[in-house]
Amino acid sequence: MPTFVTLVFLLPVFCPYLGSASSLLRDGNIRVVGLPPPVPNEGYEVPPEQWMTQQLDHFDHTNMQTWQQRYFVNASHWIKAGGPVFLMIGGEGRADPSWIAADSEIMVNADKYRALVVFIEHRFYGESHPTSDTSVDNLKYLSSQQGLADLAEFHAFITNKFNLTAANKWICFGGSYPGSLSAWFRIKYPNLVAGAVATSAPVEAKLNFVEYLEVVRDSLATSKQGEDCVNAVSEANIQLTALLKDKSSWPQVEKLFNLTSTIENQNDVMKLAVALASNFMNVVQSNNLTDPYTIRDLCNTMTNVSIGEAVKRYAAVNIARTKGRGLNVNYSFYVDLMKQTGWTSPIVVAQARQWVFQTCSQFAFYQTSDSKDQPFGSLFPLKFSIQQCMDIFGDQFNQSAIQAAVDWTNNYYGGWNISTSVTNIVFPNGSIDPWHALGITKSLSEDLVAIFITGTAHCANMYPARSSDPPGLTAARQHITQLIGKWLQEK
After folding, report:
1. Of the N and C termini of the chain, which has fewer Cβ atoms inside 10 Å?
2. Is residue 458 annotated as part of the catalytic site, yes or no?
3. pLDDT single digits (tens) 114-144
4. 268, 391, 433, 469: which one is catalytic?
5. C-beta pairs of 453-457 under 8 Å, 24+ apart in sequence
6. Active-site residue 433, yes or no?
7. Which of 451, 454, 432, 426 lies closest to 441 in space, CA to CA?
8. Which residue out of 176, 180, 223, 345 is catalytically annotated?
9. Is residue 147 within a helix (H) or strand (E), and if so which, with residue range?
10. Residue 436 falls in the annotated catalytic set
11. The pTM is what?
């Protein structure tokens, strides 16, 4: 998926944000990666954590090191004789068992199809610590391929633990990065799962993800203010850019945006620019989902001329989003924090170092300002994201290496060009969600089904249904349920 310290790539716990490090750190106040989970049903006991022994390296059979991986089980709906197994896949955030103790999508379907529900935490996230720390030498074991192999071992472990047979078919679920893992698990291990729900899944890795801000622009235009809102954001960034070009104006900018650090150099300028844009990116991605602040609020503020000129309205949004705590844009401080490797380091507890490494080593997803068709100026180009990878993890993580990793990822999994010989995957995406630009939004075959939901944000279908849900979201959930039933009936 994911909303986090200054690398520009937002993602999603389950639906974790694929995401921007830039809003994770607010003057030392660190927010944990991941969307808030649903509220457990009243009176329902949240499943306790359990542990399994997992291989450190599934692809080196001379390496016998093991570690303990965390998982959860909810068997409250399960009928063992032929009842299916629903696997919820963890991603770039702490696994919260509330997802399988509420009327979430997976649990509603578990009730209907009498399924055993299992939920596994991704290696290097939450409490699942495969190594002594998160040094670069150890992070080489953090990859989607190792994560999928973990799932295969977990499948065998659960099969043995519950004495399952071929009659107990498996369906996997995930949203955002875990949505991609869900699709990839079906692609790479079709003998283990009968179908996959891949919600808001960015299956195409991309170095320069310029489309992200383009969708943010289009989503802002869906407000009642329409293009007036977009134009106000654009004018604010024109005014901000003019101020930042003149170093003598930097103290004015610091005061206007309630900065808790001084602007010292261009790195700080770029960090400020992406942090301010992230105020909009994060709201759009989760619009009308878990954050009470919505696109409507953004556009109401940006078009409220009583606040003052456009840049002052842009500052007002920042004050609202930071809740007045201020904003630290010191790039050196950020890099030093991100270089901490211990499991008790706040940046590691927040999952930020781990996810940033995955973008630098496999996916990129850099949400830059390089497109002209977006209103956030041009102050955080691709080179800034590349620089962060090199400064945090080493010079070997340069642009050529990251591009090669992106190409390898797409060749290995197929990206947008998933083979039509693959079957039984559904790809729900929301039109408001910028991540749909890297997802499957048109069906590839009768068995690779896209569901494009107008007016919804990141992973909306995974949450409990609400009376305010748009009709398209309700219809999408019904369609997913029908597909799951179809897959379970197949021989």
Report:
1. C
2. yes
3. 999 999 999 999 999 999 999 999 999 999 9
4. 433
5. 453/428, 453/429, 455/222, 455/430, 455/431, 456/288, 456/430, 456/431, 456/432, 457/284, 457/285, 457/286, 457/287, 457/288, 457/289, 457/430, 457/432, 457/433
6. yes
7. 451
8. 176
9. helix 144-161
10. no
11. 0.95
